[in-house]
Design brief:
The chain is of the alpha+beta class and 77 residues long. It contains 3 helices and 4 strands, in the order E-E-E-H-H-E-H. Strands 3-2-1-4 form a 4-stranded antiparallel β-sheet. The longest helix has 13 residues. The chain is globular, with a radius of gyration of 12 Å.
Length: 77
Amino acid sequence: MHFMLRDGWYVQFLREDLRTSLRRTFTFQDAGKVEELAERGAAFKTLADRQGFDHGISMGRGAVWLHLTDEQVKKLM
């Protein structure tokens, strides 16, 4: 999941190749919603994962690896 602050928090999902994007994108006004998506995708397995996410939010852009179920991936397509 890639996120950036651009007229709100723009969130895009990429496949493992980091080139192919999934159709579904989101734009949120609150960074807390981006964090909620990351939590639902089990992005915070370690403290370093959490710190990297927080650093990305403070910079206005970043990315995290999500661990999605097949059902979650289908919803993003």
